[in-house]
Amino acid sequence: MNAPTIAHINCADCPIRHRAVCARCEADELEALDTIKYYRTYEAGQPIIWSGDVMNFVGSVVSGIATLTQTMEDGRTQMVGLLLPSDFVGRPGRDGAAYNVVATTDLVMCCFRKKPFEDLMAKTPHIAHRLLEMTLDELDAAREWMLVLGRKTAREKIASLLSIIARRDASLTPDGAVQSMTFDLPLTREAMADYLGLTLETVSRQVSALKKDGVISLEGKRRVTVPDMGRLMEEAGDDSDGGFLL
Predict the structure, then answer these.
(1) How far apart are CA 228 and CA 18, in angstroms?
(2) Which of 112, 113, 158, 246 has its CA 20 to 30 A from that of 90?
(3) According to the model, what pLDDT value does residue 242 have?
(4) What is the pTM of this model?
(5) Which residue numbers in the chain have pLDDT < 50?
(6) What is the pLDDT of residues 40-62, one digit of tens each?
């Protein structure tokens, strides 16, 4: 089922404007992008693209979160990444999708028709340079995630994931710096366990321990408040001015 197209959003009002692929664009470049863009919404659980399918669009997540998964020949599926607001979906110059991309929450995407976007990249250095920056950031985040999975304790893994989501929310504010955060956790505990290489019981136990120690507070199972981001990042094994963003 195709996702519905929603009303046009003015670039100046876009909540991810300063972090998206168009962040460096001048007014005339934004106008050129505007002629090839459209918006689509996806419901939680709805696929955006399947691995191997031909992609006729690229785009940025405006709101919501999606998962990247890869399915092995025997049918086992591994979550290999998260797509958070401002993250880019698709690869210019490649016809097919490398991963399954599935919305885990209701999601809005700013999409660009792929061939016109590739043509525009060739003529617009600001877009090409910004996409390179985002690709390098994604590479850095992947390397840091190898550290999370390979060397961190279960408690540090949970704290790392929470800090990633909290800091990405903070990065969408004008100053990007906050001492406390409240956000909705986009993953079930089962999905967190799959992503972090932990058991469901371990995830539940460590979340409860972080709550008991005052590192986080919970309203229901999904609403998370972090009263002190510095402490959460210490629990994650990251410096308050370091760490990484997916």
Answers:
(1) 25
(2) 158
(3) 41
(4) 0.78
(5) 1, 240-246
(6) 999 999 999 999 999 999 999 99
- Quick one: CA dihedral 49, 9, 246, 18, positive or negative? positive
**∠ CA 110-143-166 to the nearest 5 degrees?**
55
Angle, helices 114-123/125-151, rounded to nearest 10 degrees: 110
Residue 218 forms beta bridges with which residues?
Answer: 224
Sorted by where each starts, the structural domains of the chain and their CATH numbers stand as: 39-146 (2.60.120.10), 153-235 (1.10.10.10)
For the chain, the three-class secondary structure string (H helix, E strand, C coil) is CCCCEECCCCHHHCCCCCCCCCCCCCHHHHHHHHCCEEEEEECCCCEEECCCCECCEEEEEEECCEEEEEECCCCCEEEEEEECCCCEECCCCCCECCCEEEECCCEEEEEEEHHHHHHHHHHCHHHHHHHHHHHHHHHHHHHHHHHHHHHCCHHHHHHHHHHHHHHHHHHCCCCCCCCCEEEECCCCHHHHHHHHCCCHHHHHHHHHHHHHCCCCEEECCCEEEECCHHHHHHHCCCCCCCCCCC
Q: How many C-beta neighbours within 10 Å does residue 230 have?
A: 12
Q: Using an 8 Å Cβ cutoff, are 180 and 165 in contact?
A: no
In one-letter notation, the amino acid at residue 215 is: V
Q: What is the pLDDT of residues 27-36, one digit of tens each?
A: 888 888 889 9
